[in-house]
Amino acid sequence: MTTATRRRPLIRTSSLSEKMKRRLTFVAEHAVAIAVALAFLYPLLIIVTTSLMSQQQASAGDFLPDRLVWHNYIDVFHDMAFGRDLWNTVLYAVLSSIGVLISSTPVAYALSHMQWRGRTALFIVVLAMMMVPDQITSLPLYILYTNFGWIGTLKPLIVPSFFFDAYCIFLLRQFFMTIPHEVTEAARIDGASHFQTLTRVTLPMVKPALAAVGLFQFLYAWNDFYNPLLYTGNNPHGQTLAVAISQLGSNGHIASYQLEMAAALMFLAPVVVIFLFAQKVFVEGINLTGVKG
Amino acid sequence: MYQLSKLKGMNRMARRGARRLLPVTAALALVLPAAAACTSTGSNSSQNVDNVNTSGSHAPVTLEMWTFSHKQNQLDADQAALAKLHAKYPWLTVHLTGSKSDSDFAKAATAGNPPDIMFSPSTQYLETFAHDGTIADLTHLIAGGPVDVSKTVLAPAMAALTMDGKQWALPLTGDAYMLYYNKKLFAAAGITAPPKTLSELRADAEKLTVRDSGGNITQFGFVPNVDYDNNVSIYAGVYSGTHFYDGSGVPTVATDSNWGKLLDWDKSLIDYYGSGAINKFVAQYNPHSEDAGNPFGKGAVAMEFNGEWHTAQLKNFTPDVDYGIAPMPVLDGQTTSSYGVADIEMSPVYVAAKSKHIAEAFLATEFLTTDTTVVDDMSTAFGAVPSTTDAIKNWQLASDPHFASMIQAFQNPGSYGHPVDLSAGADVNAWQAFIGQYESGKASAKNLPDIATKMKNIVAQATN
Amino acid sequence: MPAVADTSAVVAEQTAAPPPRRRGRSRRKSPTRTAKPAVLLFLSPLILGIAIFKLYPIAAGVYYSMTDFHVGSYQPVHFVGLDNYRHVLSSSSDAWTAGRNTLWLLIFLVPAQTLWAMFVAWLVLRIRRGQALFRTIFFLPAMVPLVASALAFVVLLNPAGPLNHALSWVGITGPGWFGDPSWAKPSLVIVAVWGCGKIMILFLAGMLNVPRTLYEAAEIDGASAWRQFWHITLPSISPVTFFAVITGMIATFQYFTEAYVISASSNNNSGADRLIGYPQNSTLFATSEIYKQGFVFFKTGYASAIAVLVFLAVFACTIVFIWGTRRSYGYGGESQ
Are the beta carbons of C61 and A275 separated by less than 8 Å? Predict the structure, then answer.
């Protein structure tokens, strides 16, 4: 791309010091990246190593176990009803994912492919709802659920997802907006009802979006601590893993870090595995909550 | 810029959109809280319940009992007691769930399905539960029950659970907070007898401190931090001869100078060790105060302030420690009148007011709290002090030297515990937070009137 | 294309023009208005859901905040006007401490998280080979459940734990981390920063949008990495920064789990509910205080008053922030 004229060439041959500078930058950036990566991984490593330590070593805060105590993973099942809590967590995660998909899809469609007055206003209302902290709505809702007799069960966690989840509506709506209006309008002109348009035309086009939204909700429910603490915390039969594991280190339990870490590892393993396989879905989903149109 | 104007315009529309939802909401908002409040039935109905006729046949009844016990030996003792109950009354079965706190009980009462019986760790919520109608008033049932409680149960234990002339619970075990001291380390430091005053405690603590070559402390004498383990009970009044509230409910923390002397003692001992070393000790050992990592059991500290249940833990995890138990030292100038007292807290057994089987639940409760063998076995398992005179006489641990001073302290008329008021411990929490700041130098004696006012307001707000 | 259609639709609605006028804009098809019943049907879960699960609790909360309602109590309920608010704002409540701590988070945690996410995204951008691997590693912690992360850091930042051991090798006496009142909040920031993967992805996406040629030209002109970042990347990602800060602020007002789990594991003797805010109320945040008053002490009216105040604070903060940054909301910035 050099020109033949006497103008300053676009590509200058780099001087030695500039080459050095670039090489140094390269090394520095990579070194920093590796250091940061190690720092990010270290806490996860701690979970693994501590989970295989003996009680003495875990309390003493050693780095590596002298011998691998695989038995810790079995002891976890003695200390807490891991199986039952796991079942509750799975139930919550799966059912609420189904719930948000059922409730958010028509809403997202209405917010993107239907024209009506106040559409953008309602979308802003949905966004505003995302701002309302859980803690503000939870007290009156707790009383409401008490009157229904739902406290101690998983119902307060699952039922709302069948009505309204601001984040999922937002996400799905963003996905729906990427489908051109012509497609849906063509279907309408052909005589399809809105429902048919939604199910036969649009839905197949947003399958990855549905997967993303379902996955996000699954992840949110799996990791959720505050809501299960509130609504099921008093009933051991309804507890989820998040609450049960947090109680492993308190409430008079012997602070056995090794058991806590073993339980934590079993708790986080499923979502990490899902994440590793479905990375693209997550990343794309997050991008759509960002600053695109 | 465009975005903002769009937002502004949209606000108008949003309001219009929300307006559609408002009538629905308003209706819900008016109806539902009223419905929620309407679950009250006003006064306690246990007054109308008759005692169970213990002779004759009965339809089988199953009761639900919750306990704060979480250690295996405690749960085993609970189950053994319930088995004995079932043997005596075969139609009565009680199902036990462990690791339940007062909060869990209250939440279950709110949800409408409380357990019939609750074995609570302390009397912290007693007034709140009584005031709210969560627990049943047992006075009437006690009068008609099979056991003459006034002759059996220790008077101070009963008194701790009485309010407004009504008996709200029966005491099962009692906690007494004492000084644990390591005999071997005492001998090594040349100390012959446990300290009786706080200044003696301080002097002994200094003698018992061991540092390594780098100047780090490997053995502490005594750690007084209010946040450490159960130390908050050191500052609850009995060891300084003070009460939180005077006769008219006014806090005395600013007016009674003994409080200030107590806090000064605390701060000076912490300064002696250096707050860095002490904070590290507290942060390291607080999560392990009841297990194999307990610093007293490991010799990391020579003296410890703890409840009597700690004996069971030490026996379980670190049986080789040669230790003694003595009354906790008291503030100087009070040796003759009050040394030998202890902070005592009762563990009560409540009957839920909304239980469907109040009479049967009371029968079970009375059995658990008065049957000599049951009380003895529970006390042994918990390492607690029995609450009835017969149980104390029969107690297998009565001859255990560890328990000698504890039993005496328990029966000492000068012993008392945390104040029981409607704030359910929020006032003591505030006091604890204040002491924490005092220890780190963020508050001083001139802030005492502020904390006094705060405590008064907390109780006043709770009483509204 | 959809964005254009959307904007036009918005403009049309704002002017509320009758159909004939719209036909004047011939360049795009005029969207037909959807019949109301169909719209309402599709929106029914939303409307019901917002009414029951958002608007009702807010209204009920305001109502409760003006009563002396105690959940679980069988006492009759009285209307007490603004008494609860007076108690909350009095010096004998912990609400001021909770407010200060939450403000601390807003001032320190949100920028720390945002800047760190930006920095890490920049790192990933610069690494050409193995970019996907680094991106995965940096994003992974955000997938870990908060309870697990909190407990992992309790082990890591134990004063007698691995990190302090390592520090002692280089002669530094490690602080008390979660057990020291002055270090508890900074330690919580460390935990939060570790899990900032989602924000990092946003920044990365924004940075990837910047055309490569800009960087190449700057490289040729001899700009250092830092200058490239400052003059090219930073301005282009300003909408992402804006979004990250807003969502960070909102999330900070809801901060609860890590503080609760970590303080609960600090003392074996007390129950988790008694340890909220340990040590010395340094980790008592607005949400923790609401939880404590509402679900530990069951003072529903009082806790509702705190909740209403927090709600107003969230609202005010967001409005103030949007207003305050309206001028710097620049390049490429359509958010819907």
Answer: no
